[in-house]
Specification:
single chain; alpha/beta; Adenoviral Proteinase, Chain; 3 domains; 20 helices; 46% helix; disordered N terminus
């Protein structure tokens, strides 16, 4: 027995490592241990490993630099110009790998500059291996490489402040090879068409340069293929050669004869695999392009919709400013004396027939005060109703509107009944005679029926019956809706019809629409301006104006209401 056979396994490994280190070979890992074996004489046959590759000057810290074409650089430049400068290189890199446009430009450039073999569909027909490397997978790989390089730059934590695009380019050169930016994005070159000899200007990819003295290449093979040969341009090289030999001298064949000949040469199984895979690949590309166009169109629609909303909001603000003019000095004096004047609170400052307003009620028109029913009812009946009469006089085709006071809905639903079982229940008999007080004594010949509503003595809202449109809508500055009262108002119309127009047919409830409080109803930002919002909603609707006011106009609206009450007419 030889001496080497008596060595233990530990001694063998120690001897092997010593000899490997002497020869410059690393012994770490199972793959390196398999490079050496001992022969029967105790010698080790050490196979030297490949010489370590010398680090390139383009590899920062052992990482290979990534080439950025001019199209990608332009996308980066647009993103940098849109961000506030000065900024650090880390901030720029974060913007780069979070930008969808930059990632698309980088991945699209990689797909566009692939060779024909790289774009070919990887099918092994003989072995049945149908594994593919789709364009979407290649795009994802390109994006991952780009994001990785950007995050590597961010991890360095550079705090150098960059002020211009040129400084940003210098900072990116540490991890990227940059193409020269010009007007077109690529370096122009020329080539002659093989048939006509016509010189055509084209643009050479930055990653592919023609060698000196060598003619520029003609258009890509895929562009020269006839339409029927393009179907098979994506299959593996071996299969392409078979197809090419099969279709020689078939230029005059019809499409059906052409495929019949292919099927005879390749066999049904191979032909079906090739054709099916080629068609699926084309369908996938078409679907991808359609998805991209759909995303682009949706983004365009979103931008246009946002611009339209901004335009409408601007017009609304301008219209609101024009609708509510500033008061002059004399009018401000009248408002100040009415809302802040000194004297007994029960003094009557204004009166019209049986209706009047006391000093204490007008004091509720001061800022941050809750309006009472005396102010709201007088404003609707003696100010808005008079203006409506004037509008109808100037326009005879316009129908009159009627403004119920706040007690109408309260009485219709018997809110003051002492019997708790009947309180809040609909009772038409309580308001059966109220319809005689409307203009023309016929509520069905009106334009609007406006009803202010006091909800539990804590909140003012309004319900408007649009007689011509046949709808009943709820307006609440807090955004709520009382469907029970809306249904009660519809029932009131039905009972009123049956009581006074029964001989003219049945009242059709299905023609009427109950509308909840909509999103465009002005909203209050506190708990005490609901009465002012109710008055202004009735004001704007009664003169056919959109509800363009908001919380910023409320103090101005308080002055308008006070001045209208003092003058017994709605001011413009």
């Amino acid at each position: 027995m030889s001496l080497i056979s008596n060595f233990t396994a530990s001694q063998k490994r120690t001897t092997f490592r010593a000899r490997a280190r002497k020869s410059g070979i690393s012994c770490r890992g199972s793959s390196n241990r398999r490079l050496a074996s001992e022969n029967e004489h105790g010698q080790s046959d050490i196979t030297p490993g490949p010489t370590p590759r010398r680090r390139s000057r383009h590899e920062p810290n052992g990482m290979k630099q990534v080439f950025l074409s001019s199209s990608t650089l332009r996308a980066i430049q647009r993103e940098v110009e849109s961000m506030p400068l000065p900024a650090t290189l880390s901030n720029v890199c974060m913007v780069m790998y979070n930008s969808k446009k930059v990632l698309e430009a980088f991945s699209d450039d990689g797909i566009a500059h692939m060779s024909q073999e790289e774009r070919a569909v990887k099918l092994e027909l003989l072995t049945g291996d149908l594994s593919l490397s789709s364009p979407s997978q290649k795009r994802k790989e390109r994006e991952d490489v780009f994001v990785g390089m950007c995050k590597w730059l961010c991890s360095k934590g550079s705090s150098v402040t960059l002020h211009t695009w040129q400084e940003v380019e210098e900072g990116l050169k540490e991890a990227f090879l940059l193409s020269a930016l010009d007007d077109t994005g690529h370096k122009p070159r020329k080539y002659k068409m093989p048939d006509s000899g016509t010189t055509v200007a084209t643009y050479q990819s930055p990653g592919r340069k023609c060698q000196s003295g060598q003619k520029s290449k003609a258009p890509k093979r895929a562009e020269r293929l006839s339409p029927r040969r393009k179907i098979f341009s994506g299959v593996a090289r071996g299969t392409r050669n078979v197809v090419r030999r099969a279709v020689q001298d078939t230029k005059n064949l019809s499409y059906a004869c052409y495929h019949s000949l292919l099927e005879q040469k390749l066999g049904p199984l191979r032909y079906n695999r090739i054709y099916t895979q080629a068609v699926d690949d084309i369908d996938a590309r078409i679907a991808s392009k359609e998805a991209e166009r759909s995303d682009e169109s949706s983004r365009i629609e979103e931008v246009l919709a946002r611009a339209e909303r901004e335009r409408l909001e601007k017009e609304a603000r301008e219209s609101a400013a024009n609708l509510m003019r500033d008061l002059d000095d004399e009018e401000r004096k009248i408002v100040r004396n009415a809302t802040m004047g000194i004297g007994p609170l029960d003094d009557i400052l204004v009166q019209e027939g049986a209706d009047s307003v006391q000093r204490g009620s007008l004091h509720t028109l001061q800022p941050r005060q809750w309006l009472n029913d005396e102010v709201i009812n007088y404003f609707l009946k003696n100010c808005l109703a008079k203006r409506d009469e004037k509008l109808c006089h100037n326009n005879p085709s316009r129908k009159r509107s009627h403004f119920f006071n706040s007690f109408f809905v309260q009485t219709l639903f018997d809110d003051k009944n002492n019997d708790e079982r009947l309180r809040g229940k609909y009772n038409y008999k309580n308001v059966k005679r109220w319809g005689r007080k409307v203009p023309g004594k016929d509520i069905f010949n009106l334009k609007y029926i406006i009803c202010p509503v006091n909800e539990g003595n804590v909140h003012w809202v309004s319900a408007v019956i649009f007689m011509e449109e046949k709808k009943i809508q709820w307006f609440d500055s807090m955004g709520g809706t009382d469907m029970y009262r809306l249904n009660g108002l519809l029932r009131y119309l039905k009972d009123e019809w049956n009581a006074k127009k029964k001989g003219q047919g049945e009242f059709n409830e299905d023609e009427w629409e109950l509308v909840r409080c909509t999103a465009d109803t002005p909203r209050q930002a506190n708990g005490y301006d609901c009465g002012v919002f109710t008055c202004m909603i009735c004001d704007f609707i009664s003169k056919d104006q959109p509800l363009l006011f908001n919380q910023n106009h409320i103090n101005q609206c308080r002055d308008r209401i006070a001045l209208s009450i003092m003058k017994n007419c709605a001011i413009e």
